[in-house]
């Protein structure tokens, strides 16, 4: 993977994780997948160009991950993708660069990710 250009997808649901990874690859972007925030943190967040995370995950939630990344890697763009629209304000206040509600149109996902990589 190209350093700082690959997208990290973090979701505890294997079907969501693999589906989103296939979609991102179809855009011609590189992607890595993680079943938990802990496994992502162990991978070295500084190697990623953008993070896409769910909110509701065991052990470390997406919001907790976001807060940690704002402290340790403040310039790393994080996009929250969730089926819970009422979490938008909390995610944005915690430092998310964007918030996408599931289901989300593929063209919106692609535009968001390309913008995040351009800003990184």
TrEMBL record:
Gene3D superfamilies: 3.40.50.2300. The modification 4-aspartylphosphate is found at residue 54. This is Two-component system response regulator. The keyword Phosphoprotein applies. The keyword Phosphoprotein applies. GO terms for biological process: phosphorelay signal transduction system. It holds the Pfam family Response_reg.
